[in-house]
Design goal:
The protein has helices spanning about 25-40, 45-55, 85-95, 100-110, 115-125, 140-150, 185-195, 200-210, 210-225, 230-250, 255-260, 265-270; strands at about 45, 60-65, 70-75, 155-160, 165-175. The protein is of the alpha+beta class. The longest helix is centred in the C-terminal third of the chain and has 20 residues, at about 230-250. The protein is globular.
């Protein structure tokens, strides 16, 4: 399985108390992760995954995408080698991932708005990801929102990958944008997929062999259509639309293939859509 847009998050296992994952090992790890995920029937509440990451018991070593799913690969960390992410930095990271109004966050926490992104990025770095908040995996966005609502019904699939020197855990969820496939032109749908994967304007322009202005115009059209103002809100909106789409499909009798394959997607989309800040941010 391949994605329309290449993965964007770089593994950082070498910076933590975990075996180094060499760059040339990543293709093997990802292939094994996808294969084991396809055969797995085990679920993990995403709220629990978030608490493990912020509590320091696991570190993220990779995030990536397949054609149909979002993945995160984690590895266990000895308790004595790390400390939990706590306090203001954790609060800022969670507020950013939950698409809270940043001015309100700054006021509530008593910090300048300009420090929010830096603190959020440091928080992501701490859990193992060298990624700015604007490009973080949708799986982590959903996990942070589920943890904020103490909602353990939001679940992903989990499986193990046994390497020569370490055992890795893979967690995955269905990509959230499929509900839009019949509502957007193909060009805009490709842009949405790239936004989900965290591509920059320049990266999308190069990938699609067009100008940054064209990409900006297409993104503006998509944001107006979905009534969001940025990627973080877009991800939340897409998960909400996926939930609604699944609820509609669930009202009709399922075919044999849907009964066999729909368990995890159904659990994932059974949760309430996350709160998206104040009414001025999303005119839903």
């Amino acid at each position: 399985m391949t994605s329309h847009c290449p993965a964007t998050t770089t593994p950082l296992a070498e910076q933590f108390a975990a075996p180094r994952i060499a760059n040339d090992a990543n293709p093997w790890l990802r292939q094994e992760a996808m294969a084991n995920d396809a055969a797995s029937c085990e679920e993990l509440p995403l709220a629990r995954l978030w608490l493990e990451l912020t509590g320091g018991s696991v570190k993220a070593v990779d995030t990536f995408f397949s054609e149909g799913r979002c993945f995160i690969v984690t590895i266990g960390v000895e308790k004595r080698s790390t400390r939990p992410l706590t306090g203001r930095r954790l609060a800022i990271l969670e507020s950013v991932l939950r698409a809270s109004a940043q001015k309100a966050v700054s006021y509530d926490l008593g910090v300048a708005a300009s420090t929010n992104a830096a603190n959020a990025r440091h928080g992501l770095h701490w859990i193992g990801l060298d990624s700015p908040p604007s490009r973080v995996s949708p799986l982590l966005i959903l996990a942070a929102s589920a943890a904020g609502e103490s909602d353990e019904s939001v679940a992903g699939k989990q499986s193990l990958v046994h390497g020569q020197d370490a055992t890795f855990r893979t967690v995955s969820v269905a990509r959230p944008e499929d509900a839009l496939s019949s509502q957007l032109p193909p060009a805009e749908m490709d842009i949405v997929r790239c936004l989900v994967e965290g591509y920059s304007h320049l990266g999308m322009a190069r990938l699609r062999d067009t100008s940054k202005r064209t990409i900006a115009n297409q993104i503006g059209s998509i944001f107006r259509r979905l009534r969001v103002t940025g990627r973080m809100q877009l991800i939340h909106r897409l998960f909400a639309l996926s939930r609604e789409s699944h609820s509609t499909r669930s009202a009709a009798p399922l075919g044999a293939s849907e009964r066999a394959g729909g368990l995890h997607r159904g659990r994932l989309m059974s949760a309430r859509p996350p709160r998206l800040g104040d009414a001025s941010e999303v005119l839903a």
